[in-house]
Write a structure and sequence with these properties.
single chain; mainly alpha; 3-stranded antiparallel β-sheet; 13 helices; disordered C terminus
Length: about 375
Amino acid sequence: MSHAADPAAKLTAELEVKLLERLVAEWEAINYTFFKDVLRKPVFRLSPTRERLGQWNAELRSLELSRALVLERPWVEVIEVLKHEVAHQFVSECLRVDETAHGPTFRGVCERLGIDARATGSASTPLPDDDPAARAVDRIRKLLALAQSPNQHEAEAAATAARRLMLKLNLDLERDFERNANPAASPTTQRRHYGFRHLGHPSGRILEHERRLANILTRYFFVECLWIPVYRPLEGKRGTVLEICGRQANLVMAEHVHAFLSATAIRLWADYAQHSGRSSNRDRQAFLAGVMRGFETKLAAQNEQLQEQGLVWVPTAELQRFFRRRHPRIQAVRRGGAQRNAAFAEGHRAGAEIVLSRPVESGPSEKRPKALRAASKDPR
């Protein structure tokens, strides 16, 4: 790696001080949230090694994190590794057991608190090819490919079939889980079924269309969503990113839907701005929020049809427990929305015509929804 491309070369002394302060703040939050403030603050160090992501040194009372981890990987992965090392500190200084570092006591603490005992920082594991859910996901993807058909009737039929298959997959998974559930089983069983991922890029502000998209994923695509704080060490700034929790198959599909709707909304806005003459940021935010609201209205109507067919899914208690284990202290915050103007109304009409298919690249579209084709040029 060249010096110019090395992220460490961009980390000034001032940014490194801010980074260490941020790590201390994250440690304090973990100590409070998971360990009830029983731990004493350790010495923090950034390690130059790439051989390990982190290390708790009981003799020196130091907690090290790899500089490469902190600078090159998403902040959410940094926090997962930090949780792992704080768990080591807890076992070392509070439980004082005579075991190997990753012995049964440490694994039990991680299991009880929902901490990754492997310390990989990885958010989730891929579905094995021989997993029945993986085969169902592959069929859903093929249906979404058919939903790109220029024939509107065929496209809608394929997209609806894909949603029906997603719903049936979750109902089948839930029945299998209940059939094989062992009341005495440990929470490890849950983590074989549930995981988490982070979608999009860290941003400093959560806009209405992003919140609406998160709500779509929660209500219609079998995951729980939460906006979590992150840190951008090379900028010395905080931000937020969307975390989704759910079964591995649902994480795959929710990530797909997020990418598709994000790109489609931007593409539709570019098209609308070009043909209407409206280009202000206020109109942009209103239009994008309208797109998400329109698509959500369409999904609600589809759900009514699916319920008439006897396909009803209720969020599972296991998912709620997994989610709460990862985030024991959650606060709801109410935020204002975008202005309800003509741009919002046009976005709503365009969103109601979206056919869920494969993700598309952003940019003006040759095949616009009817609402946009009918939009007249109306500059302010």
